[in-house]
Design brief:
Number of helices: 14
Bound molecules: protoporphyrin IX containing FE
Shape: globular
Number of strands: 0
Length: 357
């Protein structure tokens, strides 16, 4: 078995288990009275961002980079989070997570030296945001500050990937400069969040809106939505993700950075679920085969989990904005159902692909 597959065989199930734990913890935080210690419920954010996404993004980068040590990033993300959830003392887990993000930054740095392209730089800035978030969290800074930096990790990683693919659409020379300027404004907002969280939220919101406008204008999804099958499904996932990024930008500008509560929930999850999970749903049928060699043949039922994600998030955010915690609670539960359905539909498609192979 190739080394790559062995890593994936261990790390992908670990990442999925951490995703399920994080969803459970998030639901307990929302008021579902299910068994879970308060300590674990409070770890929802780091478990989903570092444990699940840190592992998956790290794996994707390690496979592309083709150096064994690069697997230190996903392995560190998974092991660090497992240590964090199983140990009462957070120190060792946090230390491993900081180490994992340093490895990811190194991978981006060397990848940039190999191919000095703007998209690699933007993704590298995403990796640096993950490192900063982990350091801030380990240093005991409030979790809402680390949350904005975690957001930076995911937004810049995904935006960088879209910048890379947008090269297929004809665009002016200045458009890339605009994109880089937006990334700079976004990073400035994250730095400002260390001193003035409220205004920093507004600036981050403005940068997110700028990114959305840019992506609406230049992303190939605008063209590929007219195609059929998987290509169209991917475009639908991308474009709907951009709608949620617009919502997040508007909420951040309207309310500024808010450190807890319903508006905080809406601002964060418009990005984390609306934008990030739309991207995951859209890309899974191509990323999973690239990582694992397993085919994920497209099927029309993929639209069901995508639609459930959006409807449930709309319910949750309506509950947040109208201060109706019960509505938000049900929206959150349906968010988790959409994620479970996605996992189920993906596993079903893999099985179907094997049978027809
Ligand atoms: C089933 C889906 C989810 C549920 C039920 C959920 C629930 C929650 C709740 C209730 C909070 C606290 C908000 C407040 O203070 O009122 C929260 C915070 C947070 N969530 Fe989620 N969430 C979910 C998915 C996600 C995803 C997919 C991500 C990341 C990709 C994420 C990242 C975060 C972060 C970083 C925080 C801030 C950390 C904190 O305040 O402890 N969540 N979530």
């Amino acid at each position: 078995m190739p080394r790559r597959s062995r890593w994936i065989l261990v790390l992908l199930p670990a990442a999925l288990a951490l995703l399920l734990l994080a969803a459970w913890a998030g639901l307990v935080r929302m008021g579902w009275e299910w068994p879970l210690s308060r300590r674990l419920a409070l770890l929802h954010g780091p478990v989903v961002v570092s444990g699940f996404l840190g592992t998956v993004i790290g794996l994707e980068r390690a496979v592309a980079f083709r150096r064994p040590w690069a697997y230190g990033a996903p392995a560190g993300a998974a092991v660090g989070t497992l240590l964090l959830v199983t140990n009462a003392a957070p120190g060792p887990g946090l230390l491993v997570l900081v180490g994992a993000s340093i490895v990811l930054c190194l991978v981006y740095f060397l990848a940039y030296r190999r191919q000095p392209a703007s998209f690699t730089a933007v993704m590298g800035l995403g990796g640096a945001c993950w490192l900063a978030a982990n350091v801030l969290y380990a240093a005991g800074r409030p979790v809402h500050v680390a949350a904005l930096w975690w957001m930076g990790f995911l937004v810049l990683t995904i935006a960088g990937e879209r910048l890379e693919l947008s090269r297929m659409v004809p665009r002016s020379r200045g458009s890339e400069t605009v994109f880089l300027a937006l990334a700079a404004v976004y990073i400035a907002a994250l730095v400002l969040a260390l001193f003035a969280y409220g205004p920093a939220g507004r600036l981050a919101g403005a940068a997110l809106l700028g990114f959305t406008l840019w992506l609406w204008r230049y992303d190939v999804a605008r063209l590929t939505i007219r195609r059929e099958g998987l290509t169209r499904f991917i475009a639908a996932g991308l474009l709907s993700g951009y709608v949620w990024m617009t919502v997040a930008g508007v909420l951040l500008i309207a309310f500024g950075g808010v450190p807890a509560g319903l508006i905080y929930d809406a601002q964060l999850h418009a990005v984390f679920i609306g934008f990030v999970f739309s991207m995951i749903f859209a890309h899974a049928p191509i990323i999973l085969p690239a990582l694992s060699g397993l085919a994920v043949p497209y099927h029309g039922r993929f639209y069901v989990h995508l639609a459930l994600l959006h409807v449930s998030l709309a319910v949750r955010i309506a509950g947040d904005l109208l201060a109706l915690p019960d509505v938000r609670r049900w929206g959150g539960l349906l968010n988790a159902a959409a994620i479970l359905l996605f996992l189920f539909n993906t596993a079903w498609a893999v099985r179907r692909g094997r049978r027809t192979a």
